[in-house]
Amino acid sequence: MKKVIRFSKYVIPAVVVSSVLILSGLFPILTKGINFGIDFKPGLVSEVRIVPAAMELSYNGAATVSVEVNSADVSLVISGVGAENETRVYPFDQYKTVGELSSAMSEVAGLTAVAVAPQALTTGLFVNSASSPVLSSTVYRLFSGEKGQLADVEAVRDALSSLEDVSVKIAGEGASEVFQIRIGATDNVNIAQGSAGMQENLNFALSQAFGEENIAIIKTDFIGAQYSQSLIMQSVILVVAALFLIWIYATIRFKWDFALASVIAIIHDALIIIAFIAWTQMEFSTTSLAAILTILGYGINDTVVVLDRVRENVKKINTKKFMDIIDISQTECFGRTMITTVTTMLAVAALVIFTSGSIHDFAIALMIGMVSSAYSTIMITSAFLSITRKNWKPSDEVKSIAAEGTIVDFPGK
Q: Looking at per-residue confidence, does 2 or 368 come out higher?
């Protein structure tokens, strides 16, 4: 058997280092607070597409004409003085291109329909929800996403750099791809006025960068303070529930102290990530929460492997000290722990190097969590078991096997 690494000699220093790291995270939390992302703060959430207009409509007449666009057709609702109240429907299966649709709509008296992209298909046309559907002399645009977005996510972030507390993500793919833009609001802002003001600032910044004719607001919501606080509480409950279920699983598979040791190890990892986020003031968003939950699952997998080896060695190793069994089990699993951690970190390192924004922060949190997970699997579980198994007696667990003569002496005994 190869030489046993005496990890148990470093248990007390490890506990001191972990305690200092975790407690030090309280200082920035108490002085600066956690830098919550706008996922957890009140603010504006808009889905925006930056695509060329396919058709432009305007109306000069006495009647009132409004536009309704859905997945199958475009409708013109005509009413008011000097007009017959009617609804004209233009199905996409009949008017397949924007050119055909604009020609048909131009037959309405006073309505001007200009096909900017006459060959574009009518299927998938959409409008800017921020524009009034009632036509007037002001140009009303219908958009087509056939050619894709005119900007990438980095260009949108640059365009909105003048606004405070902004997050930009890509949602959907292909023809349904949108930019999901979140703008945080202060606690004392009036919700109605704040929403209108932030929407106006958003529209202005995007129009300045990409042209008003290319901006389509798909959907806009304003998240209030009460909802954001509820989301924080739900996130805490989610993490606690995950820990509880892991503890139940580990208790069924092992004894109570093994189960508690594994849960303490992954709680340690979560607290290390939180301390790191607090010190660096990295934005804590839903991706950060996903990183913590990922590390909980990653850490318990590694810890269970080690504890499973401990359970096997309890029946095979003849020693009076339980920490001898811990040391040999950790030594046997050390190579696997390091190889698994390093190879996984190589994949995560690619995300750190080649991505930005929330994915970049997610990858950094994973890197910290993986290092902490490897460390806690070896040192934190050992520290806890050294306390619970201080008065361990080998005869309590191995006497039936000892009678068969299959127990081996601990190396170096």
A: 368
